[in-house]
Input
Amino acid sequence: MFTVVHLIPTGVGAAIGGFAGDGGPAAALLGAVCDRLVTHPNAVNGAQLLGLPPNGLYVEGSALDAWLAGRLALRPVRGRRVGVLIDRAVERHPVGTLEALHHAIDAVRAVHGLPFAGCALTPRPVGAHVRAGAHGHSTGGVADPEALLEGARCLLAEGAEAIAVVADLGPLDPAAEAAYDQGCGVDPIGGIEAILSHLVVSALGVPAAHAPLWPYEPTQPRPVDARAAAEHLGHTFLPCVLLGLWRHPSLVPPSAALPGDLGPGQADAVVVPRGCLGGPGVIAARDRGIPVIVVQENTTAVPLPPAALGWPPGPTLVEVANYWEAAGLLAGWRAGLEPWSARRPWPPRPGP
Output
């Protein structure tokens, strides 16, 4: 099966996919020219909405990197029981905050029939916080990671097969938050969200994704950029995480892979935004000879051109103008064509 990876790193200010599920149309386009699309929460999470195409696999970012590197196989599932782990910091939030989370959980259960494994509070506040990185990307830290893992272990003991983490992220810079809402800034919480999910996946080996814990404070709607609008539909960002984790593949050691699994690194191409060649998944793809397509129109705050990695254009690195061109290139590869044969001038004949 022709398998494509749709990768948009979180917290790097991607023009497409750096906001609230606005990478979904690109996911649908790429999904239309492959048999399986492997993507991750940041590319398709849209608060109340999820932009995952029917042939898409929702895979947490660090697990996706490990799969590309050959350290994991992915086993598709019909569905899995999701447990919700809520930061005990919710006790400091306004009355109604916890109830809003319960409403989101019940709504997804009622509308989609999602199997629910229960809800728990962490034993102590997690102490997550955000900060800006040296290159303008977003990152952060966690004061008590063990509180997160203790709570997750309790949910696993109760039958959860995936963990939806809802953590308080501390105060945000008002200027950074406003810039993001107006479509001209980096998602200030993207980096710490990845850190939180990576902690659970790496320590416990189960799927996880994060939804931020915001105080329940109903406000009057205000104008925002269309790409951030999904975050203004309700009081939690939990529905997309629950729906994604419900279908998250199992993480399987390579030695235990079965014929129906996606074997370690079993990808035909990886599609990434401009400047995003330094991540572990992309580097693993390069080292394993998996072609990487760089979409120039999807700009980011990360200034890392291919030359900086000593990676010249060639069969394993192709730069295209936009996702339209990426889809056309993939369609050619899927058909077994030399894609450049459909362009002019005619490509020169190799050899003497």
